[in-house]
């Protein structure tokens, strides 16, 4: 059986990897475009093939759904060409939602769409005890700069999210928030420099040169087992991935990173996001996670069902 074969393949790593079903919020690239440049990857002179972007985005959604994850759609708004990058709209940890406040005027109005979705469909109205929806004070670009782990939240700063926002997230969630300074404008968000492979076991991968020397020391100390992504991995946006405990949904082209992940027992699902890369984003940038309940420390249901192909 399919499931059997893949389970065997996935136990070549240190432990057997298991899927924990996730709830994601994503926004179709209906109005996707590169009409301004707010990161070094964007060039308004290069035309965008929106149909292709839509097909690539749909393949990401399909891969999540095949693996058993729930994907809710956020209604795209005309005139907001970066809305496909839904990770930037809000951070939800244990049913507590911190809305985004964007660093650039071009994206500011996206926050209203996210607020409206969270007010209507978010955890606050799911009847979850302790759920909260918080308005941001300082600039924060949500999961672009906040990496949620079971024990801690890693928080990027230097280009977009303000260090003041780190304290807001800590106050809202009660979690320790560890600041990491980004020093290379190509890695302007934390989620292009560091990936959460498994939120429940605090497994990460990162690209050291994206961080200041002090932040590299923090990472090396806290994550001695981390996977290190090389230049080619990082430039291919290889770290802009989503892990569900067993699968790693990642952009194509991060050859060394993929080999490392497979050696640790992850099942890599490669997705072509070439069109979305024109906006400076890939798989993770398109994906906001709705974490309505505390993440369990141990594994969820057995993998093998709904295996993406
Ligand atoms: N063009 C968008 C920007 O520069 C891309 C955002 C990518 N999102 C992310 N989570 N890294 O804001």
TrEMBL record:
Look up the domain of life of the source: Bacteria
Q: Which GO terms describe its molecular function?
A: arginine deiminase activity
Report the record's Gene Ontology biological process terms: L-arginine deiminase pathway
Gene3D superfamilies recorded: L-arginine/glycine Amidinotransferase, Chain A
What keywords would UniProt list here?
Hydrolase
Instruction: State if Membrane is listed as a keyword.
Output: no
What name does UniProt use for this protein? Answer: N-Dimethylarginine dimethylaminohydrolase
